[in-house]
Design brief:
Elements lengths: L1 E2 L5 E2 L26 H9 L3 H15 L3 E2 L5 E2 L1 H9 L9 H102 L19 H24 L5 H38 L2 H11 L6 H9 L6 H12 L8 H29 L3 H24 L15 H26 L6 H8 L1 H5 L1 H31 L6 H8 L5 H21 L3 H44 L5 H48 L5 H42 L20 H20 L2 H23 L6 H18 L5 H13 L21 H8 L10 H12 L1
Antiparallel strand pairs: 1-2, 3-4
Helix pairs in contact: 4-6, 5-6, 6-7, 8-11, 9-10, 9-11, 10-11, 10-12, 11-12, 11-13, 12-13, 12-15, 15-17, 15-18, 16-19, 17-18, 17-19, 18-19, 18-20, 19-20, 19-21, 20-21, 20-22, 21-23, 22-24, 23-24
């Protein structure tokens, strides 16, 4: 089957008249491309089937009215008759043609397959032959490539060898050229050296090089080389021991050269410095840089650097005097640290700005700007700043310190701290601007070294001076207050109590503030933790001494008021008349009460002062002492020791307070207690269940005076004081009641007094005192019960029999009821 020109496939066989012989020609091209079996099959059978259909169509059209059978053939009337007769024609007459066609197609397909198989076999043989030939060719190519690589390696090795040889030749040529150049320079140097070696001081016959201003740099370089060579030769000759006259002559000749070269270098250096100065005045930075570069060959340019720094206007004497006027201000008035700080800030800011401007010039001019900046900053810290500090920080005498009216030692210390702090800030600013390898911090520390070595002694002396001045001020205020107020219109007791200077927490707070300021200076001046700890401990010890002395003296003065009140009380008891003695006693009682309150206020303020010191130690001092071994523990011991003296005085004063209270209690009991209070007559009047007037007065008095104690004391101190007072009150009441005789109604009155006293002392929160007053209440029953009931009264409390026996003797019926004999037999039998 082939495709026609219009793209349609056509059968490639001819159709003869007979339908059973259809020659079919199949082509391999039919199976190429997009092969479709359905299309092939359709093309094969459609050659036969359409002709049959056309014949049937024609037959149906000729007969008309025929029916179509189910198998697709047309039924005619004759067919109907034949069918009825059992006679029929073939249903599909093209079957034979199709079978023949299919067989022919199968045969051709088999032939085509064989043809294809043959072609494939031939192609395989050809491919195998080509592959073998290709492999052989690749093997030969690999061998050729290997040979080529080997050739390239030999070529590379040869090239490398040639290159090394060329490099060696180049090095030799360069070395030879350098040797030639060196030899040429050496010849020139020898020629120049011979010129300088002609005669001492003769510089007129030198080459034009040494007088040509346009070749100054070259002349300086050559002169330095000649000088270096000559000096090394002289040094070498001086170290060698030789007796050859020629050597001695050579040495002398080189000495002449060295002398001439030194003279020439000095002259050249001076010329360059003069040119440098002239360019500096005209601000010609390029000329300055050229001169500086040439001068760097002379002593590494040190002379040029120092010359430049030395001519800076900032180091003029007038400028330094202006510094002093700016910082110190009016020389007549006393300088203040705040003004000094402001002046130093302004001055140091000005210096920093000048150095920053100079740094820009130095960077543009000098080949080694860091070295120049180092010299400049060093000059600032060794010349300008020290001259100011010398006038600012004048050490006062520790033997005869200046009075506080003139500033005292504290003014020197404050100015020292301000100057140190501001100078440290200046050093940091200069370090930021740039100062090379200069140790700015160490140089700054050296400025204050003489002050810091004995700083702590000045700090301690200043604290002592401040304390003395404060004490003097307080004494003057007290004296002035006493003189201005006088004693007119006041009771004598009040005048005694108020005439003494009281402890002031404000004053102690001022002590702490002084110490805080001193500690801040210690922190500023002490860079090492151990040194700081030692200085802090020394300063804190001063505070402990001051506070201890101040509160101890304050407590002693308060004790003196108690002592004066006691003396006044004894003196007034010697009055001539009873009325005078009573008035004097009441006056002395008021004095004692005021002195009691005054001492309690002192104790309270003493406790507050100690608390302030302890808080200050915990917050500010403790952490600073830790770096030094044992410093913290030693400071704690010193603090305890310093406060122990005040505690001793306070203890003695509290004992005097108790004594003062008990003396007044005894006076009130003696004056107010009547015999009839506990021995009321049996007149049929109902007994009085109120406390006696003496009891009421005593309780009221103690309540009044203890208000100050309850406020001033706290903790264990308060408990100990109230316990001691309760015991003394118990003992005093026992002694007082033994002066009276009691009947049953009096016993009830006594029991009421004891209850009143017991309820009062219960506010002391002292269990031992409460127990004693409870036992007193039990013993008071001895005055109430009948004589025959006394034996059973103390069965539960045998511990109070002794005191009870004493109380029983105070019964009104003690003798009439013969209680002595009865109780003696009773005590004997019970024991």
């Amino acid at each position: 089957m082939n495709e026609s020109k219009d793209g349609r496939k056509t059968n490639r066989f001819s159709k003869p008249a007979s339908t059973d012989s259809y020659p079919l020609v199949l082509d391999i091209e039919d199976f190429k491309g997009d092969f479709s079996f359905d299309a092939l099959f359709g093309n094969l059978v459609n050659e036969l089937l359409p002709s049959h259909l056309e014949e049937e169509t024609d037959a149906s059209e000729g007969h008309g009215g025929s029916d179509v059978m189910p198998n697709g053939h047309l039924r005619t009337p004759s067919d109907t008759g034949k069918s009825a007769q059992g006679l029929s024609s073939p249903l599909f007459p093209e079957v034979d043609a199709l079978l023949s066609l299919f067989k022919n197609s199968c045969t051709q397909l088999i032939d085509l397959r064989k043809e294809i198989d043959g072609k494939l076999y031939n192609l395989k043989k050809e491919v195998a032959a080509q592959d073998s030939s290709h492999r052989k060719t690749l093997t030969e190519l690999e061998k050729g490539v290997d040979g080529l690589f080997t050739s390239f390696a030999r070529l590379d090795s040869r090239i490398s060898s040639v290159g090394q040889t060329a490099a060696k030749i180049g090095d030799h040529l360069q070395s030879a050229d350098a040797q030639r150049e060196t030899a040429s320079q050496t010849i020139d140097l020898i020629k120049y050296l011979m010129e300088f070696n002609s005669s001492p001081g003769d510089l007129m016959e030198l080459s034009a090089l040494f007088s040509d201003d346009s070749r100054v740099a070259e002349a300086a370089s050559i002169a330095q080389k000649l000088r270096s060579f000559a000096e090394e030769d002289i040094e070498r000759q001086s170290m060698a021991v030789s007796s050859v006259m020629g050597n001695a002559t050579a040495s002398r000749g080189l000495e002449v050269a060295v002398s001439n070269l030194q003279e020439y270098c000095n002259e050249l250096e001076n010329r360059l410095l003069a040119r440098f100065d002239a360019a500096s005045q005209r601000r010609e930075l390029s000329t300055m840089a050229e001169c500086a570069k040439i001068l760097s060959q002379f002593n590494r340019g040190t002379s040029a650097m120092q010359h430049y720094v030395g001519l800076r206007p900032m180091f003029d004497l007038e400028v330094m005097n202006a510094d002093t006027r700016l910082v110190l201000g009016d020389p007549v008035s006393q300088p203040s640290p705040s003004n000094i700080a402001s002046g130093l800030s302004s001055l140091y800011k000005e210096i920093t700005e000048i150095v920053r401007k100079e740094a820009a010039t130095i960077m543009a001019v000098f080949p080694s700007p860091d070295d120049v900046m180092s010299i400049l900053v060093q000059r600032v810290l060794e010349d300008r700043v020290p001259k100011l500090l010398e006038k600012l920080l004048m050490k006062p005498s520790l033997v005869n310190p200046p009075p506080l009216e003139e500033g005292g030692l504290i003014l020197y210390l404050r100015m020292l701290a301000v100057a140190y702090e501001k100078t440290q800030e200046l050093a940091r600013e200069l370090r930021g601007v740039g100062c090379g390898d200069l140790d700015v911090e160490g140089l700054t520390e050296s400025l204050f070294l003489s002050h810091k070595d004995i700083y702590i002694e000045y700090e301690q002396a200043s604290l002592r001076q401040l304390y003395k001045a404060k004490m003097k001020e307080l004494r003057a205020e007290t004296q002035q207050s006493n003189e201005s107020t006088g004693t007119i219109g006041r009771s004598k007791g009040a005048s005694i109590a108020s005439s003494h200077q009281q402890i002031s927490v404000t004053v102690v707070t001022e002590f702490v503030r002084w110490n805080e300021e001193a500690i801040s200076r210690c922190t500023l001046f002490s860079s090492q933790p151990a040194t700081l700890a030692a200085n802090v401990r020394a300063v804190f010890t001063c505070l402990l001494d001051q506070v201890s002395l101040y509160i101890t003296e304050g407590l002693e003065r308060a004790r003196d008021s108690l002592t004066e009140a006691a003396a006044l009380r004894e003196r007034f008891m010697l009055g001539t008349s009873v009325s005078r003695r009573v008035a004097a006693a009441e006056h002395a009682a008021a004095t004692g009460e005021n002195s009691f309150r005054s001492f309690m206020v002192s104790v309270q303020r003493c406790g507050s002062s100690v608390a302030i010191v302890q808080q200050y130690f915990a917050n500010s001092i403790s952490r600073l002492l830790l770096p030094l071994d044992g410093a913290h523990a030693a400071a704690c011991e010193e603090m305890a020791s310093a406060m122990s003296s005040a505690e001793g005085v306070a203890y003695k004063g509290l004992q005097q307070c108790i004594e003062t209270v008990m003396v007044e209690v005894e006076r009130l009991l003696s004056a107010e207690q009547k015999a009839t209070d506990y021995r009321s007559p049996d007149d049929g009047i109902a007994p009085d269940h109120r406390p006696t007037n003496a009891c009421t007065r005593v309780v009221a008095y103690i309540s009044r005076v203890l208000e100050a104690a309850f406020t001033a004391l706290e903790g264990l101190n308060k408990q100990a004081f109230l316990t001691e007072l309760g015991n003394r009150l118990h003992k005093g009441l026992l002694n007082h009641w033994q002066k009276f005789t009691f009947n049953p109604s009096g016993g009830l009155r006594l029991k009421r007094d004891i209850t009143e006293y017991g309820e009062f002392v219960r506010s002391f929160n002292a269990p031992s005192v409460d127990e004693k007053f409870e036992l007193l209440g039990i013993m008071a029953n001895v005055f109430i019960v009948a004589p025959e009931s006394l034996s059973t009264l103390f069965e539960g409390t045998p511990s109070i029999r002794k005191d009870a026996q004493t109380f029983i003797q105070l019964r009104e019926d003690y003798k009439s009821a013969k209680l002595a004999a009865r109780l003696s037999s009773l005590w004997a039998s019970s024991s």
